[in-house]
Design goal:
The protein has helices spanning about 30-40, 75-85, and strands at about 15-20, 45-50, 90-95, 100-105. By secondary structure, the protein is an alpha+beta fold. The chain has a four-stranded mixed beta sheet, with helices on one face.
């Protein structure tokens, strides 16, 4: 078992990494994204982060008390976090009522 901010893999080990409904629990998302960037191939690496949108707080998708334990990010904020972590390209690829899909690459 490993922590998302200290993955037990060598630099550039993967071409893709995904996170499904876990991202909003990470206490320091930029640190986690930097770690994901580290384990990605610099020329072919990509991430897919599927997370719960702010509008879902208090709904069946993120009921209380669960909704008080995570951080919900707006679309622009998610893209900015990926940019801060060093990803060359980041965007919201899919936006649903209660979810967002952030995709980012290590290359431009």
């Amino acid at each position: 078992m490993a922590s998302a901010d200290q993955l037990p893999f060598e630099d550039g080990s993967f071409t893709a990494v995904s996170s499904i409904i876990a991202f909003f629990f990470f206490p320091d998302p930029v640190v986690v994204l930097r770690e994901l960037w580290r384990v990605l191939d610099p020329k072919r690496g990509r991430i897919a982060i599927y997370t719960t949108a702010p509008e879902a707080r208090g709904t069946p998708a993120a009921p209380y008390p669960l909704a008080t334990r995570g951080h919900f990010y707006g679309d622009d904020e998610l893209v900015d976090l990926a940019n801060q972590a060093g990803f060359a390209s980041a965007r919201i690829a899919v936006r649903e009522d209660w979810a967002q899909l952030l995709v980012a690459t290590t290359w431009a």
